[in-house]
């Protein structure tokens, strides 16, 4: 049987260090635990109607301050197994509870390419398909083959193929129509044996970093090293400055909206997408609305990167939401663009 704890403090699981208590809490460390979770969910007793919330690394969620009436399930399922191999690629099945960056490090050490630009991202493997993690031109969707899930309502275990996950920028079915429906057990990733130029190398910041170090044809480890160092300079360490990484998504707007802003700010760095759309860095909008480094209650807009909100120590979730609303309002007033938050709110 699963061991279920009651009234468990959330802050210890939150990289933003906010949150009250989980009404119920349990840890799942192997696939064999799922039948007892099913028995609990089906039970008519005290767990009746209590939703299951899946907890990964807690690095992309803003938890409310009160007692949250959920059964929080922390997934600690491990595993790293090669399931297929050809001359060109290696498919690896990884347990949802593995730490993402340890997996990246391992695949880089194996000489496999695909994950190097995604180095240094906090969180677990189970979270990687949910928000289609991305950085330095790579998105994990390009490496995902299939996602193994446990369906809460039926107790069944099956695979969802990449094409059925509806991956988009920081989005998937797991955040939309399938939200709360599945628990991710493992993910199969396809990595390349043939080293193609890394997406990170198209980022001027990464190129500049490598040039300064005198590195001409960087190998995977050197690219990983560069990405980690650049991240460290832009993203605060959650252990010192509690945060959830980017707090807002980069808004995608019609070209005409971007052109209007460019008239007033000719130096703005926007990114053209297909279909008359432009991606505007939210960090740029927040900075140019005069908010970089500003303190809003117990929450600051990080002084080295306006996309990150930092809990100054004793912020509550309410303080975070107030700061968010204030930033959204000020950016909307100045640029007419409504920012959307990136982390989940529970
Ligand atoms: N910028 C500013 N002011 C700021 C911050 C950024 O003007 O305070 C400008 C930069 O100068 C640059 C542009 O915004 O021209 C883009 O900045 P950057 O390359 O740092 O990336 P980002 O768009 O701010 C995204 C991801 C990050 C990821 C980086 C690197 C989102 C929401 N964020 O940030 O992901 O690491 O690109 O690829 O898409 C995360 O999701 O938590 C995260 C950290």
> In total, how many domains does the architecture comprise?
4
CATH architecture classification of the largest domain: 2-Layer Sandwich
As residue ranges, the low-confidence spans are none
What's the level 1 CATH class of the largest domain? Alpha Beta
Radius of gyration: 21 Å
Distance between the termini: 27 Å
Which strand-content bin applies to the residues?
25-35%
Mean pLDDT: 94
Q: What's the gist of this structure?
A:
With 346 residues, the chain is of the alpha+beta class.
Tag the structure with descriptive keywords:
globular, 346 residues, 24% helix, five-stranded antiparallel beta sheet, four-stranded mixed beta sheet, 8 helices, Uridine Diphospho-n-acetylenolpyruvylglucosamine Reductase, domain 2, alpha+beta, 4 domains
Describe the overall structure.
With 346 residues, the chain is an alpha+beta fold. It is globular. It is 24% helix and 25% strand. It folds into four domains: 5-75, 2-Layer Sandwich (Uridine Diphospho-n-acetylenolpyruvylglucosamine Reductase, domain 2); 80-192, Uridine Diphospho-n-acetylenolpyruvylglucosamine Reductase, domain 3 (2-Layer Sandwich), CATH 3.30.465; 199-234, no CATH class; 252-345, Uridine Diphospho-n-acetylenolpyruvylglucosamine Reductase, domain 1, CATH 3.90.78.10. The chain has helices spanning 34-42, 100-109, 127-130, 204-212, 220-234, 255-264, 282-288, 317-335; strands at residues 5-9, 21-28, 52-55, 61-62, 67-75, 80-85, 89-95, 134-135, 138-139, 144-151, 157-161, 182-192, 252-254, 271-272, 277-279, 295-296, 299-301, 309-311, 344-345. The strands form six sheets. It has a five-stranded antiparallel beta sheet with strand order 6-7-12-10-11, with no helix packed on it. A four-stranded mixed beta sheet has the order 1-2-5-3, with no helix packed on it. A three-stranded antiparallel beta sheet has the order 13-15-14. The model has no long low-confidence stretch (mean pLDDT 94). It is built from eight helices and 19 strands.
């Amino acid at each position: 049987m699963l061991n279920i704890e009651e009234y468990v403090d959330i802050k210890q699981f939150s990289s933003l260090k906010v949150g009250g208590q989980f009404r119920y809490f349990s840890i799942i460390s192997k696939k064999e635990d799922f039948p007892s979770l099913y028995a609990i969910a089906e039970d008519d007793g005290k767990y009746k109607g209590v939703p299951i919330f899946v907890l990964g690394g807690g690095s992309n969620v803003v938890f409310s301050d009160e007692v949250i009436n959920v059964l929080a399930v922390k997934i600690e399922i491990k595993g790293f197994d090669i399931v297929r191999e050809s001359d060109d690629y290696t498919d690896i099945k990884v347990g949802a509870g593995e730490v993402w960056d340890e997996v990246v490090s391992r695949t880089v050490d194996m000489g496999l390419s695909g994950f190097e630009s995604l180095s240094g991202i906090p969180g677990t493997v189970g979270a990687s398909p949910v928000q289609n993690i991305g950085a330095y031109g790579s998105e994990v969707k390009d490496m995902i083959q299939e996602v193994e899930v446990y369906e809460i309502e039926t107790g069944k275990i099956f695979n969802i193929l990449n094409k059925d996950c509806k991956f988009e920028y920081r989005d998937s079915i797991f955040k939309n129509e399938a939200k709360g429906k599945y628990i991710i057990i493992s993910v199969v990733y396809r990595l390349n044996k043939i080293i193609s130029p890394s997406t990170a190398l198209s980022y001027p910041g990464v190129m500049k970093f490598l040039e300064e170090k005198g590195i001409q044809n960087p190998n995977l480890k050197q690219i990983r090293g560069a990405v980690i160092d650049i991240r460290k300079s832009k993203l605060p360490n959650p252990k010192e400055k509690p945060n959830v990484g980017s707090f807002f998504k980069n808004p995608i707007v019609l070209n005409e909206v971007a052109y209007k802003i460019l008239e007033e700010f000719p130096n703005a760095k926007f990114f053209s997408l297909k279909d008359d759309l432009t991606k505007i860095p939210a960090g740029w909008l927040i900075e140019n609305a005069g908010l970089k480094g500003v303190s809003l209650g117990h929450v600051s807009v990080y002084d080295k990167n306006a996309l990150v909100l930092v809990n100054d120590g004793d912020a509550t979730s309410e303080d975070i939401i107030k700061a968010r609303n204030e930033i959204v309002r000020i950016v909307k007033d100045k640029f007419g663009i409504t920012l959307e938050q990136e982390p989940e709110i529970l």
